[in-house]
Design the sequence.
């Protein structure tokens, strides 16, 4: 086993802001998680992970959210929501569920792929090269439903990997990278905590604890790692944070409230995280 892994899950613009608040609150308490041996990002977590591993601090990202810095601006229609739910909930089998979602995503009429890449470039705020730190970003093959991980050795650029990880099915088109089409890495697991297998100490931050459909939750995945001998903390929103989120995780107007709620909630997690990160 290697040592520490930081896992950052997806959650749209609101979940991104909450995660940044949690990270900033923990850092303020002396628990800076940016020095993890590996950072694993999924969807919005891939944006945070890329910036954090590249030297942007959690406090800087937190202040950006409060100041209303540019963020992902996506409108989701009722029709898109219905198609997503129809696909994801159409089977009790996890593999069939994600394959249905992939087929639906490939057939959907959405914005061009260039819109995804443009939005990701804005979110990354100038970060374009793979960092020296070990960064791994999850994406799902839209045709097969297979989960795969991009890193610096994958032969794709960092913005391409982030775009693949963030391509929300039905809302955005699957992204073409390395000759394949990719959709959001959270399509079958919102945080992919299982990817931290082999690390002794794991902290996972999951603003959305479970993907839509018959898939394991971040807490269940963390429990499996713990059963294998790892020390694991899975951080999820409390009632106050969920109230700050509202019903739409893409609601830009909720970003500041979500970031502040995350920072407040971080205080309740300090002892738990310290026990894992600095035993």
Sequence:
């Amino acid at each position: 086993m290697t040592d520490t892994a930081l896992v950052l899950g997806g959650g749209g613009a609101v979940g991104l802001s909450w995660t940044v608040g949690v990270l900033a609150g923990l850092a303020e308490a002396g628990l800076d998680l940016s020095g993890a041996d590996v950072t694993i990002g999924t969807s919005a977590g891939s944006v945070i992970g890329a910036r954090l591993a590249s030297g942007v601090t959690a406090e800087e990202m937190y202040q950006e959210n409060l100041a209303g810095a540019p963020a992902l601006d996506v409108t989701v229609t009722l029709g898109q929501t219905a198609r997503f739910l129809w696909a994801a909930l159409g089977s009790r089998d996890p593999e069939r569920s994600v394959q249905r979602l992939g087929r639906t995503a490939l057939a959907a009429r959405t914005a061009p792929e260039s819109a995804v890449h443009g939005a990701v470039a804005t979110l990354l705020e100038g970060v374009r090269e793979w960092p020296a730190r070990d960064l791994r970003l999850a994406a799902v093959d839209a045709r097969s439903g297979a989960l795969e991980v991009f890193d610096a050795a994958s032969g794709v650029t960092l913005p391409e990997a982030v775009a693949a990880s963030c391509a929300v099915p039905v809302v955005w088109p699957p992204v073409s990278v390395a000759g394949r089409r990719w959709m959001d890495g959270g399509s079958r697991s919102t945080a992919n905590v299982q990817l931290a297998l082999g690390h002794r100490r794991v902290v996972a931050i999951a603003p959305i604890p479970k993907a839509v459909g018959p898939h394991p939750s971040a807490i269940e995945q963390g429990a499996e790692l713990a059963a294998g001998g790892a020390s694991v903390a899975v951080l999820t929103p409390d009632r106050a944070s969920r109230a700050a989120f509202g019903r739409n995780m893409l609601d830009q107007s909720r970003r500041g409230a979500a970031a502040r709620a995350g920072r407040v909630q971080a205080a309740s997690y300090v002892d738990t995280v310290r026990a894992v990160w600095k035993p």
Summary: The chain is about 45% helix and 15% strand. The first helix runs from residue 12 to 28. The chain has a mean pLDDT of 93. The CA atoms of residues 22 and 265 lie 7 Å apart.
